[in-house]
Amino acid sequence: MDTGSMPTDLSEALKLATKESHELAENSEFMRKFLKGQVTRDDFTLLLDSLYFIYTALEEETERNKDHPAFAPVHFPSELNRKEALEQDLEYFHGPEWKSRIECPKAAGNYVSRLHHVGRDEPALLVAHAYIRYLGDLSGGQMLKRVAQKALELPSTDEGVAFFTFDRVTSATKFKQLYRSRMNTLEADGETLQRILDEANGAFQLNVEVFDELLQLGAHNQRNGGVVNGSMLGDLSEALKLATKDAHELAENSEFMKNFQKGQVTRDQFKLLLASLYFIYTALEEETERNKDHPAFAPVHFPSELNRKEALEQDLEYFHGPEWKSRIECPKAAGNYVSRLHHVGRDEPELLVAHAYIRYLGDLSGGQMLKRVAQKALQLPSTDEGAAFFTFDRVTSATKFKQLYRSRMNTLEADGETRQRILDEANRAFQLNMEVFDELQRLSSGSERNGTVHGNDIRKRAAVVQGRSMTTGTARDLQSHEPLTDGSGLRFVLLLGLVAVALGIGWYLL
């Protein structure tokens, strides 16, 4: 821009001189995806990491130059500084040990180096960086905040998005007017003005390079299940979600789920499902209790909120009566699941988080819907008898609790090899669940052919867990086969299908 034709106001000159650079940054692929809500927790966390290093450098230099005549008029630390807000967000996503869990990507490092050079050697140019960053944050911050809260299911109380929240700016419009008017008091000759404009365009270019690198890291992270160049840049919760995507799709398309509306089933199928879950959760909760103080599991140990064994005992007593323990057996697929859980808890406790994540967060995602369906389909009391498994009395908000659970998961320390083993174990847990569903499907098919599930048929297909001293008794109650009426039978078919939907599709809501 010809300095002779520049606007006399520095703020207006900056706006005009950086128009094209602004548009390039705004239209970067990373920002376009963000604005569309196509941002993952991993993407967002990587962005926060980069911003933390950038704002730490920027605010060191603004503090260094707070009395310099080329910057002092636009120094508003209490209103604008972002480092403390970023520390809150990083603790939310990474946990209390966040400082040891983040790295400065290369592009952010280049930005940091430039900021320190300007602050130390060319303070007259510092206003360009402050203008680009702070006024940009104020202009788009509220919109980005809403997008992030919706896309990442963040609390409405600003946890995780403190960076976009300017508590001490009551009116962004009025504050930006004040800031520009202060900028226009800065004295700069023609040469200095041009250098400021060039620095502003350079600042936009540094931002674009940061966005481009974040896009590459996010893509690499997704391809490698959360491991980027051997370092744990991604959250474990996000890595699990990405690494188990195919397993989710298999769960959604299992025969058991696709065919749940075909044929009549009896109460026996539901009892068998509860029995399978009882043995699985008994094993899981023995191992979570065994490892409650282990650093690889302790942060996600929530027995009072999540444990299901006691609830399953209530449901089994409701359906089988007081002698329920002598009336159930553990089907073969559930027994395999039990054996794996005990192996993991005893010998590989660092993998236990995979099983807890798949089971409990899946139950939380579909629990309330299943409770209502079960009560209606089986004409259960409204006081939760028979549906205790789906009732989490000590979780007041499933959404907030899952956010807490994920944030705790993300504090677990795991090297690259251990991280990959956790991801593999999560896929294995899905496979074990699918084998349980496949076995239930086979038993359901036998019921369709015979109009009922006979005790002898079930006994042929069920097996006592080997190597575990569990009371299984006989399957006397499973020999009872009172068929439901046509209406209640159809409702039960829908219930059984929705059980699979919640335990399968519900995992998509993890």
Please give the oligomerization state of what you see.
single chain
Poorly predicted ranges? 225-233, 257-265, 451-509
Biggest sheet character: none
Approximately how much beta-strand content do the residues carry?
A: under 5%
Rg (C-alpha, Å): 29 Å
Structural class: mainly alpha
Share of residues in helices: 55-70%
Give an overview of the whole structure:
There is one protein chain. This protein is mainly α and 510 residues long. 65% of the residues lie in helices and 0% in strands. It contains 23 helices and no strands. The chain has helices spanning 10-17, 19-26, 29-35, 41-64, 77-80, 83-94, 106-121, 126-151, 172-183, 190-223, 236-243, 245-252, 255-258, 267-290, 303-306, 309-320, 332-347, 352-377, 398-409, 416-450, 455-461, 476-479, 486-504. Helix 1 (10-17) crosses helix 10 (190-223), helix 4 (41-64) runs parallel beside helix 7 and helix 14 packs antiparallel against helix 20. The radius of gyration is 29 Å and the shape is elongated.
